[in-house]
Amino acid sequence: RSGLRPGDIVGAIAGEAGIPGKAIGEISIQPNYTLVDVAETHVKSVLKSSQRAYRIKGKPVHIRLADLAMGS
Known about the structure:
The chain is 26% helix and 24% strand. By secondary structure, the protein is an alpha+beta fold. The strands form two sheets. A two-stranded antiparallel sheet has the order 1-2. The chain is globular and about 30 Å long.
């Protein structure tokens, strides 16, 4: 609905967290949430950077660790 593309997500996370785009793996965009696979060595950087609000296409995005049951 929002026109969100995987490239938008990679750019936002890589740019804000200061990690290489190749550290971001599979992305699953769902209607109410998006799952993003981040290399384990970069997870802390991504979460720490999320204390400042990420913005994608001008809208704030909340980032947290996924509940493994969520993707089922």
